[in-house]
Design goal:
This protein has 14 helices and 19 strands. By secondary structure, the chain is an alpha/beta fold. The protein has a nine-stranded mixed sheet, with helices on both faces. Strands 13, 15, 16 and 17 form a four-stranded mixed sheet that branches. Strand 3 and strand 4 form a beta hairpin. The protein binds inosinic acid (IMP) and magnesium ion (MG). The site of inosinic acid (IMP) has 21 residues, from helix 4.
């Protein structure tokens, strides 16, 4: 029996999907615990491509329970689009949604755009999916939860209060006309409520039952540590607890249930959105990695910013998440370079920093100090796949040295190494779930 969390250690898009997909195959339950339609991942299965935002990665397996935990914010329209993709190929996923999940309302989306426009240099470059305003309303106790959609009178009353307020806020503060009427939203969301009702269940209790029955549970992180509302690079992150602690608060199970926390590490850095990025490569090397890795956002299509691997960030992620294992991705993408650099620490005001400072203004002043590694050859897709079979020892020696150095510096063992996009292109050094007969 294992309860395991998979979490991004950098700024998102580390390739969590691939790692999650591997472990999901062995789990009984897969849980999403944070974020909403800001997340985007593509799953290729049986030659078919699915673009998901909310649904957990176990949905393609009909026998698995997929939980959307209370820490998630749900945009019903997008959720039903995802179900539509599954329905089109005859898959009826087993999804359970917590009644405590907050709803992204149309005015949140309008507010996201309006607020970003006013933040100037402090705009995070959000996905404009209404995530920030929805979590703000949750914290301010203004939010509307999925469970309340199932109580039409209560829903109507709350919507009336919020709609009146948001129309005024958008008009008088932001100069934006929000034209969708209360009646229109009420009708739309009442209909969503009827369609959501069969999915609503006490997901915390399902997990506690799974614990007593010694089931295997995978908590699937969305976004990443540096985007966490508390531990990320505030304010250039998202609005939920994306790090491992969020798996507990966002699903309703206590920290003592968790056995493993696997941090996904892309062997270089990327991010979408604004904020300082100490190891950023604004040059031909950065462009070459972007092109080779197809580094463009899944949700927004934006080109991702690229940089060298940043050890201060990784050390910090190891502490914040309590990592028990590392899952490296994209070793093949970083191949074929003469030299590869790793930032071992920062220098700030004459001091050596091993982890990032709290303030983004300080991070912006940090000077990254690099260690150079000789690059490894791009041996081509077939040989990379052969390495996946042959294990770590069959990897190019320089690539092994690079990975061992990183693991040693952050003091977390290597569990997984990704050497290509496919399921078969994965070296697994340590299993976390006991294999089923
Ligand atoms: P929001 O979550 O839409 O409010 O966006 C806040 C910041 O987080 C922006 O810089 C986004 O680009 C970033 N972000 C949000 N979700 C993801 C994700 O799933 N992957 C990578 N970056 C993300
Ligand atoms: Mg993504």
């Amino acid at each position: 029996m294992t309860f395991a969390i998979v979490v991004g250690t950098q700024w998102g898009d580390e390739g969590k999907g691939k790692v999650v997909d591997y472990y999901a195959a062995q789990a009984d339950i897969v849980v999403r615990y944070c974020g909403g339609a800001n997340a985007g991942h593509t799953i290729v299965s049986g030659g078919r491509k699915f673009a998901f935002h909310h649904v957990p990665s176990g949905v393609l397996y009909p026998e698995k329970i997929n939980i959307i935990g209370n820490g998630v914010v749900l945009e019903p329209k997008k959720f039903f689009e995802e179900l539509g993709q599954l329905d089109a190929v005859g898959i009826k996923p087993n999804i359970k949604i917590s009644p405590r999940v907050h709803l992204v309302m149309p005015y949140h989306v309008a507010q996201d755009g309006a607020e970003e426009g006013r933040k100037g240099a402090l705009a995070a470059g959000t996905t404009k999916r209404g995530i920030g305003p929805c979590y703000s309303d949750k914290a301010a106790r203004f939010g509307i939860r999925v469970g309340e959609l199932l109580q039409p009178e209560l829903f109507r009353e709350k919507l009336h209060t919020m709609h009146t307020l948001k129309v005024k806020l958008l008009k008088e503060v932001y100069g934006v006309d929000f034209t969708q009427s209360e009646d229109e939203i009420c009708k739309l969301y009442t209909e969503y409520g009827k369609r959501l009702a069969p999915f609503v269940a006490d997901t915390g209790e399902i997990l506690s039952d799974a614990l007593s029955k010694k089931k295997q549970v995978l908590f699937e992180g969305a976004q990443a540590t540096m985007l966490d509302i508390d531990h990320g690079m505030y304010p250039f992150g998202t609005s939920s607890n994306t790090s491992a602690g969020g798996a507990c608060t966002g699903s309703g199970i206590g920290p003592t249930a968790i056995d493993e926390v696997i941090g996904v590490v892309k062997v270089y850095t990327s991010r979408v959105g604004a904020g300082p990025l100490p190891t950023e490569l604004n040059d031909a090397t950065g462009q070459a990695i972007r092109d080779k890795g197809g580094e463009y956002g899944t949700t927004t299509g934006r080109p991702r910013r690229i940089g060298w691997l940043d050890l201060p960030t990784l050390r910090y992620a190891a502490h914040v998440n309590g990592l028990t294992g590392l899952a490296f991705t994209r070793l093949d993408t970083l191949s074929g370079m003469q030299k590869v650099q790793v930032c071992t620490h920062y220098e700030l005001d004459g001091k050596k920093l091993l982890i990032p400072p709290a303030s983004y203004t300080d991070i912006a002043r940090c000077r990254p100090i690099y260690k150079s590694f000789a690059g490894w050859d791009d041996i081509g897709a077939d040989k990379w796949r052969a390495c996946a079979k042959g294990g770590m020892k069959s990897l190019p020696a320089r690539a092994q040295a690079y990975l061992k150095f990183i693991s040693g510096e952050v003091r977390v063992p290597i569990y997984v190494i990704g050497v290509g996009a496919g399921r078969e292109d994965t070296i697994v050094l340590k299993e976390v779930f006991s294999k089923k007969a």
